[in-house]
Write a structure and sequence with these properties.
4 helices, binds NADP nicotinamide-adenine-dinucleotide phosphate, 39% helix, four-stranded parallel sheet, alpha/beta, 18% strand, single chain, globular, Rossmann fold
């Protein structure tokens, strides 16, 4: 077993979704895989995986919504008791161009950092 529990952010699509797919379907999967995303209702592929693999729990989490952290921590605690490995894959695929706005740069670095 890789770990007792794994939490991956940004799992609606991209590398986060693929990371979750490979974790739940590997030979010795973690007891609990938590896939977080901003809009669970719209994360159809993640929902399909959760129907197939009972060790996958989905938790709503926007990584820059710091006010939501107490709720997220409580939900993670309920799911696993503790978080033994965190896979932080929420992010932006493109680095803002040098002439892009400072706000865009700050958002990209805050999400991916
Ligand atoms: N793909 C690769 O091969 C690769 C390799 C190395 C590093 N990376 C890095 O990994 C990160 C993700 O890449 P990707 O290719 O998977 O990009 P992607 O397909 O655009 O997916 C980005 C994911 O991050 C989520 N996300 C964005 N902002 C978020 C926030 N504030 N809170 C929670 N989730 C948020 C998106 O959720 P929504 O659906 O809600 O927008 C989506 O699930 C990027 O930083 C990228 O540079 C990717």
């Amino acid at each position: 077993m890789l770990a007792q529990s794994v939490l991956v952010t940004g799992c609606s699509r991209g590398i986060g979704l693929e990371f979750v797919r490979q974790l739940v379907s590997c030979d010795k999967p973690p007891a609990v895989v938590i896939g977080t995303c901003r809009n669970p209702d719209k994360a159809e592929e993640l929902q399909q995986l959760a129907k197939k693999y009972s060790n996958l729990k989905i938790i709503k989490f926007d990584v820059v919504d710091y006010a939501s952290l107490p709720r997220v921590v409580e939900e993670v605690g309920r799911a696993v008791g503790r978080d033994s490995l965190r896979g932080n894959k929420a992010g932006h695929g493109q680095v803002p161009s040098p002439d892009g706005s400072a706000a865009l740069s700050r958002q990209a670095f805050a999400t991916s950092g």
